[in-house]
Amino acid sequence: EGGAPARAREAGALWRLAAATLDGNWEHDHTVPSRTLYPHQWSWDSAFVAVGLAHVRPDRAWRELRTLFAAQWADGRVPHIVFNPALRAGSYFPGPEFWDSARAPGAPDVATSGIVQPPVHALAAWLVHRRAPSERSRAELAWLYPRLVAWQRYLTDRRDVGGAGLASIVHPWESGLDNSPAWDPPLAAVPADAAVMRAYRRHDTAHADAAHRPTDLDYARYVALVDAYRAGGYRDDGLDGRHPFLVECPLLNTALGLAEHALAAIARETGADPGPHRERAVRITAALVDRLYDPVGGTFHPRDLRTGRLVPARTALGLMPLALPGLPARPVAALLAEACSPRFGLAARMDRPLPSHDRTAPDFEPLRYWRGPSWQNLNWLLWRGLRAHHRFDLAAGLRDSMIDLVATAGCHEYFHPDTGAGLGSPAFGWTAALLLDVLA
Ligand code: 9WN
After folding, report:
1. How far is the CA of 176 from the centre of ligand 1 (A)?
2. Is 431 exposed, middle or buried (0-12, 13-18, 19+ CB in 10 A)?
3. Complex ipTM, two decimals?
4. How many other CB atoms sit within 10 Å of the CB of residue 345?
5. Ligand 1 atom 8: the closest Cα is on which residue?
6. Would you say 418 and 409 are in contact if contact means Cβ atoms under 8 Å apart?
7. What is the three-state SS of 214-275?
8. In a structure prediction context, what are the per-residue pLDDT tens digits for the chain, which is 440 residues long?
9. d(CA 218, CA 208)
10. H or E segment at 116?
11. What is the pTM of this model?
């Protein structure tokens, strides 16, 4: 009785909340993930944000992507942070002086970081266009297309350290899941001392509960890895012999494959040849299965190039290949079983969306960042994957739980996987953006 109109009213209010959150985070030519914690432009955040902006302010969606790609390096890399020069020093750690991109060959005029994040931008550009195709959106696609291709080439050529057709990450920040338990073993091999952090001022712990963030020892290793990469001018040749962290990440490589699918669609729309993109998507998918799938355990794992072994943790990273439409039937079935197991709790009716780590693992931490809390970008990628593999029942359950989460807690950065309490930054960009996309 009255349930449907009440839900509709609620959906309207949620829509307005999400749109207002994106408006509040807009900063002249890009969106900040959070006004307090992340006051610059982040790479994969901008892609997710563009997907949401397409529903409310398509002009800004294109502007967002243009601003990011204006900071692309000569070698094709898209930096994970583009710094806003108008902000005072100390508004984020590590800031522009720490990265020192100006001294690196091929860096753009604007200050950026030197590492990358998952390449979800081609997918975002395609979705923005598809939402409302127009002459304008075709022109934007045509501008982006060669840049997106150069971005793929950077990852598939310079970053193919393992030589098997997958890109490697040189830093946990490149995965986007900074302190995931997946990175514990490869990170443990990076020499560092938590005392190093006394020389720096962390900015994050001034705005978020330190117990919900990576530890000082994590940060000491993050800093050591940037030091090592920066010392080599952020070059990628010879990484194998000199860099202490080299890992093939299932999420980054899933995004790489998704990007080739999206580029095929963009090529078709802009008069280029989609064929090579389709072939690359097939090759990347095959390499993912070949290199990162464990048929016995039935999920995907990162491969640590320094040991040659798969990292055993079963994290949400391992489920992400489900987003690939061409994933073969066996891994699809295995990932569905993994997602529906007590480890992740996916169901056609579920109280909460997925946690970022296996709930049954001894190192599951429901409050600490990527070690347990639920994040809307991972839920969104999985939601798309469920639909790509025709599991509309599970997709609907996941979608409902995503909407409930924000309806109850607001547009937080991440959420307690059991209580649904909002954690981290309030008014977080991609939470708002991806809510718009699932509501639309
Ligand atoms: C380091 C901006 C970014 C996200 C990452 C998330 C977090 C940064 C940090 O915030 O990382 O890049 O300072 O913790 O882990 O996924 O892109 O929202």
Report:
1. 6
2. buried
3. 0.99
4. 18
5. 173
6. no
7. CCHHHHHHHHHHHHHHHHCCCCCCCHHHHCCCCEECHHHHHHHHHHHHHHHHHHHHHCCCCH
8. 345 666 667 889 999 999 999 999 999 999 999 999 999 999 999 999 999 999 999 999 999 999 999 999 999 999 999 999 999 988 999 999 999 999 999 999 999 999 999 999 999 999 999 999 999 999 999 999 999 999 999 999 999 999 999 999 999 999 999 999 999 999 999 999 888 888 898 999 998 999 999 999 999 999 999 999 999 999 999 999 999 999 999 999 999 999 999 999 999 999 999 999 999 999 999 999 999 999 999 999 999 999 999 999 999 999 999 999 999 999 999 999 999 999 999 999 999 999 999 999 999 999 999 999 999 999 999 999 999 999 999 999 999 999 999 999 999 999 999 999 999 999 999 999 999 999 99
9. 16
10. none
11. 0.98
User: Is residue 204 in contact with ligand 1, taking CB distance under 6 Å?
Assistant: yes
The reply to whether 236 belongs to the active site is no
| Active-site hit among 178, 269, 304, 338 | 178
Is 3-410+426-439 a CATH 2.30.38.10 domain?
A: no
With contact defined as beta carbons under 8 Å apart, do 319 and 355 qualify?
no
Half-sphere exposure of residue 128: CA atoms within 13 angstroms, side-chain side: 34
Q: Which atom of ligand 1 lies at the shortest distance from residue 92's CA? A: 13
Give the residue from 140, 150, 161, 169 showing the smallest Cα distance to 80: 169
Whether a cis peptide bond, with omega within 30° of 0, leads into 342 is no
279 alpha carbon – ligand 1 mean position (Å): 32
157: annotated active-site residue: no
Q: How far is the CA of 177 from the centre of ligand 1 (A)?
A: 8
Centre of ligand 1 to C-alpha 43, Å, is 10
Q: Is 304 exposed, middle or buried (0-12, 13-18, 19+ CB in 10 A)?
A: buried
* Beta bridge partner(s), residue 88: none
Pocket test for ligand 1, best of 178, 215, 225, 414 (most atoms within 8 A of CB): 178
Mutate to test the pocket of ligand 1, among 40, 98, 173, 174 (most ligand atoms within 8 A of CB): 173
For tokens 């963009």, the residue is: 266
Q: Confirm or reject: Cβ of 176 under 6 Å from ligand 1.
A: yes
